[in-house]
């Protein structure tokens, strides 16, 4: 039997991780909608310059929040790879 404060903290982590996944689902929906617009306009779906700027921005924002910049970059590279699979 785990102490109550450990299982309570785990429950808080479960809730928070679900909230993170909800945000990822919302982001994926936005990317899907953006790709529909880009296709209609004949724009390239993948935009390497935007990705460079996005990763730099997320690194700076992460550090301001006390999150390691390298962790933010790993996360957002994975998110961008997911966007690429949807092209
Ligand atoms: O910002 C865009 O233009 C997008 O298409 C979105 C997004 C992303 O997932 O953030 C996806 C693909 C692009 O290469 C760059 C960024």
From TrEMBL:
<keyword id="KW-0413">Isomerase</keyword>
<dbReference type="InterPro" id="IPR002701">
    <property type="entry name" value="CM_II_prokaryot"/>
</dbReference>
<dbReference type="GO" id="GO:0004106">
    <property type="term" value="F:chorismate mutase activity"/>
</dbReference>
<protein>
    <recommendedName>
        <fullName>chorismate mutase</fullName>
        <ecNumber>5.4.99.5</ecNumber>
    </recommendedName>
</protein>
<feature type="domain" description="Chorismate mutase">
    <location>
        <begin position="1"/>
        <end position="87"/>
    </location>
</feature>
<dbReference type="Pfam" id="PF01817">
    <property type="entry name" value="CM_2"/>
</dbReference>
<dbReference type="InterPro" id="IPR036979">
    <property type="entry name" value="CM_dom_sf"/>
</dbReference>
<dbReference type="InterPro" id="IPR036263">
    <property type="entry name" value="Chorismate_II_sf"/>
</dbReference>
């Amino acid at each position: 039997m785990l102490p109550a404060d450990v299982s309570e903290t785990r429950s808080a982590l479960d809730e928070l991780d679900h909230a993170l996944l909800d945000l990822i689902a919302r982001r994926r929906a936005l990317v899907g909608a953006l790709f529909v617009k880009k296709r209609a306009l004949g724009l390239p779906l993948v935009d390497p310059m935007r990705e460079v700027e996005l990763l730099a921005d997320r690194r700076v924002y992460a550090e301001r929040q006390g999150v390691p910049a390298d962790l933010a970059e790993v996360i957002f590279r994975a998110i961008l790879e997911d966007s690429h699979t949807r092209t």
